[in-house]
Amino acid sequence: MKRRLVDVATAIRSKNAGLFRVTCDVMFDDVETYRKVRDSGAITPEVVAELYRIPLDHVVSVVAHDPGQGIKVTIKRRVTSGNPGDPDILGCQQHAPLYGIMVPA
Amino acid sequence: MDEMRILSATGALGATPFDVDSFQRGLERDPHMVGGDAGSNDVGPYGLGSDTCYFPREWVKHDLRQLLLGARTHGIPMAVGTAGHMGTDNGVEYHAELIEEIAREEGLAPFRMAKIYTELSQDELRGKLAAGDFETLDDSPELTEELVAATSHAVTVVGVEPHIEAYRQGADVVIAGRSCDDAIFAAYPIYKGFDKALAIHLGKVLECASVAGTPYMARHTMMGTIGEDSILFEPMSPKQICAPVSVAAHSMYEESHPHYHRIPGGLVHLTDCTFTQYDPRTVEVKGAWLEEVPVRLKVEGAGFQGYRYVGIVGVRDPLTIEHLDEFLAYARMRVENNNPTLTYGEDYQVHVHTYGAGAIMGEREADRSCPPTEIGIVVEVMAPEPETARMVCRMFRKTLMVAVYPGQKATTGKAAIMADEELKGMDSYKWTIYHTMKVSSGLDHSRVVVDTVDGRSSR
After folding, report:
1. Interface test with B, best of A26, A57, A58, A81 (most B CBs within 10 A)
2. CA-to-CA dists, residue B267 to A16, A25, B57, B196, B411, angstroms
3. What ipTM score was computed for the predicted complex, to two decimals?
4. Which of B28, B143, B208, B451 makes the best surface tag, with the fewest CB within 10 Å?
């Protein structure tokens, strides 16, 4: 059975990592759920590139962090943080496309 | 000293007044030091470029007063980093003057205040550029003479070294310019002989105070304790606890990679860290280690971009929403046709934020199957002359109101306005420098000045 990531993760958030990158943290309270999602291969650079409609080399990294029971997805920003025209200066609303990723439940 | 307790009052000093109750609860635990991070590059280049602290003075003073009174009552050091939120020399002076003012109001006995200045002058920037000392950082472009010339203000982001120097010179209160967030809290334990990697990890978690606790809360106090081989975190609000996941999550907050944390002259490895529940409210962390690398300091610079006007309109008509792209293209065309002597994008910039129709994600947004019921359009215009910005903003916005498209039904106005006059925005700035700079030590390009503040002397 599969469920949406938003329904199994404890927290999904995004934030600036410097001026040129946005980093999304997908975190789990439950270690079993974390491991299942981590090992499922559901969150990969290719999946992220497709979700955000960006070239693969705009996905900086997708890394699992066992101590934090989290998966970190870092992508290049569309506009440098806070420069004229940037609609999301903190980068805190860039995580939403991840919600719909289907993961094993 | 076996352990040192450090109180981080708030994650953003002066941004909103911090919670006094949880800070007082922290003081009751006899901390060895209190501190607060006042700044960030996170909220854009305006503060640095314009050299202004735009937080309400009353709030900044509130937070500084709490910290200062707590520190002086307990006879412990207090540290603030990135003073004024932008960390320029003016930011340092602003906080230092507030400290003096509070000391007089409270009649505080004499104490030593260190001011750490980290601003770089145009001459210094040009000299370092000519010497080839700058390197790009992440995706920043090569630094050029043009970018340096376009810089209104630039700061070095210092690590623990000048903070430690301030303590060496006997500082009771440290007001620092642009500083690494972790350095504000890590410098004192390092000065007192605690492990550097652990101290940096402690500072990294403490910099946002209660954000490392759960449930999520901002502007509340967090206690960090450093011992010989571990660090402990406990939130001071009774409504929060620290859980291994909340602390581990904050270890990777705002980092590109969860396993490393970069500091001037080092890379802190977090891969081997363990996070365990020490007691029901406290988490114990072990395992950070430091790899030393040649010291480079980060430099941030921002420059004036233009005067700014803003227009806001709303669209409810579904036919107009259907034709939104044409509608916006028409407005742009009309602005260009009416200002033939001005070049779009050069003599003025127009940024159209279509809230409800992809403003936040832009082309990264997935296909929207159902059209929005209403759309808010913010027309943001920047130009070197304020009158140009105002005129272009008005032309663009008024054109949206009278746009024409095939099959239109509404003939009175295509957009709802909440003000007919243009709204004057703050001046617009852009980042010009985000690079690392070669230095011979972490003390280069900062100045530490220590003076006595006597709240009882009449001045």
Report:
1. A81
2. 20, 21, 37, 11, 63
3. 0.91
4. B28
